[in-house]
Amino acid sequence: MKNELVSLVIPVYNEEDRIVSTLEKVWNYLDTHNYHFEIVVVDDGSKDNTLEKLQQFKNQVKVISYYPNRGKGAAVRTGMLSSKGKFRIFSDADLSTPIYEIEKLLEKLKGGADICIGSRALDPLLIKEHQPFYREFMGKMFNKFVQLIVFKGIEDTQCGFKGFTDKAAELVFSKSKIDGFSFDVEILFLAKKAGLRIEQVAVEWYNDKRTKVHPIKDSVNMFIELLKIKKHHSNTIF
Q1: Which of 2, 91, 99, 122 would you label with 30, given CA atoms 20 to 30 Å apart?
Q2: Phi/psi of residue 63, each to 5°?
Q3: Angular region, 217: left φ>0, alpha ψ -120 to 50, beta rest
Q4: 81 falls within a domain
Q5: Does residue 184 lie within any of the structural domains?
Q6: pLDDT at residue 212, as a whole number
Q7: What pLDDT, on the 0 to 100 scale, is given for residue 193?
């Protein structure tokens, strides 16, 4: 791994309570396993003490910060386009998918995939801690809308653990426009339109009760964003 830089992008918004623990886990894993790596944390307009907490890692982590809050899609896009790695992975700040699952993504990327996404749908037994039933139901309904409105073939677009080659990341994120939570669908739509090879792998997943996703407000916004994706990219050419 020493000859190929791996970038890990972590978008954060008001994460003062867990960002230190997350970065310690990530750093220790990547360092112990002899990776050549960079960690890029994008602070999406936090209003708490997240930035102050990040100062503890100023010699280990690249921090990008802006204000006001723009949305997870904007934060991930900023981080992915600012990264330098041959392989670029983004992960949620709560590490709902443990960092050691990075091995699965990298295996596929090194094997020729342009994009590899973690999936909770491929092996439900790997969901070690479930969301409340109403969130799982809403997630399944959202995917039905994805299949109906945008594209078919991917049953879990929203797992926050995805990997890209440098070329694939620059290709899709440079053209993405969705700032909210439906950005995952948009980048996969763009990847399919560009003819990129997308692989899926089953990953462990643990629900974190401190989720930032509001079950009603964000669900409505995500549906509206779905309707915009094809409109935004009707004339996008690769």
Answers
A1: 122
A2: -110, 130
A3: alpha
A4: yes
A5: no
A6: 64
A7: 96
- φ and ψ at 158, to 5 degrees? -100, 0
**pLDDT less than 70: residues of the chain:** 1-2, 210-215
Distance of CA 123 to the CA centre of its chain: 19
**Would you state the pLDDT for residue 129?**
87
Number of domain units in the chain = 1
Residues 126-181: tens digit of each pLDDT: 999 888 888 888 888 898 999 999 999 999 999 999 999 999 999 999 999 999 99
Assigned token pair, 49: 């003490």
Q: Using CA atoms, how far apart are residues 166 and 171, in angstroms rounded to an integer?
A: 9
CATH number of 39's domain: 3.90.550.10
For residue 214, what pLDDT is reported?
65
Tokens of 21: 């623990």
Closest to 121 measured CA to CA, from 139, 104, 95, 101: 139
Q: Which residue has tokens 């830089």?
A: 5
- In DSSP terms, which residues pair with 36 in a beta bridge? 5
Confidence at residue 215, expressed as pLDDT on a 0 to 100 scale: 63
Helix (H, G, I), strand (E, B) or coil at 113: coil
| 117 within domain boundaries | yes
Q: Which amino acid appears at position 189 of this protein? A: F
Helix (H, G, I), strand (E, B) or coil at 69: coil
